[in-house]
Amino acid sequence: MSAALATPGTVIELFGTPETLHRYATLSRTASDAGIEVSEVDEDALAALTETVQPQGIVALCHQADVSLPDALARGPKLVAALAEIRDPGNAGTVLRTADAAGAGAVVFAGDAVDPYNGKCVRSTAGSLFHVDVVRGPDPVSVVTSARAAGLTVLAATGYGDADLDGLADSGALATRTMWVFGSEAHGLSDAVLAAADHRVRVPMYGRAESLNLAAAAAVCLYASARALRDFEE
What are the residue boundaries of the RNA 2-O ribose methyltransferase substrate binding domain, all occurrences included (predicted)? Predict the structure, then answer.
């Protein structure tokens, strides 16, 4: 909630029960001072506004702050995450939150991906939805092509990649503007997306686990790039 309020023009109206608005008086005051209408509602009305079984007692109605792919790329982000056809809202939201933590400038929901404003996806971002450029892009291949044309190196994450993440990191290949592309756990990335990327990258497995889930793999990849970029800049 505080992340949304910190982004001017995002919150349209704030709803809460009298008890909750009193409990979060600073939040309510911040909204009022910004010219945002704050409305008291009862428990039944609040439940109708939310999708959760046990709502926290306060709800914000917000604008959808989409950014076009050309505009996002024109800002020169050093790190971008693209979610290709990922339909699980919890996974997508967690990857967006991780991308924000790793310093990414944009997250692209490519092709038939989950709606980034799906309730579960929004909650999984824990506010990071308001910290990065959120793009609902065309098909994943077009996203990859546009990213490469904008000067980003595109890395496709796949368990069958011909490049090893540690090897790329050791060679210095991650110290460049990068878009990581992640596919769904069930289907991975299409052959067309894999072919369009600069490298197909696997996360090395040192134990006996067969694979990592999407969110864990994305965290490893994004933080490897974040560290390489930080070391390069220093």
Answer: 2-68
- Whether residue 234 is predicted with pLDDT greater than 60 in this model: the reply is no
Angle formed by the axes of helices 214-233 and 89-101, to 10°? 10
Cβ 83 vs Cβ 185: under 8 Å: no
The tens digit of pLDDT for each residue in 27-37 reads 889 998 889 99
pTM of the model: 0.87
Paired sense of beta strands 58-62 and 79-84, if any: unpaired
Q: Check whether 24 has a pLDDT greater than 80.
A: yes
- All domains of the chain, ordered by start, with CATH? 2-62 (no CATH), 69-233 (3.40.1280.10)
Q: Helix or strand or coil: residue 216? A: helix
Assess contact for 120 and 108: CB atoms under 8 A. no
Indicate the helix (H) or strand (E) that contains 40: strand 37-40
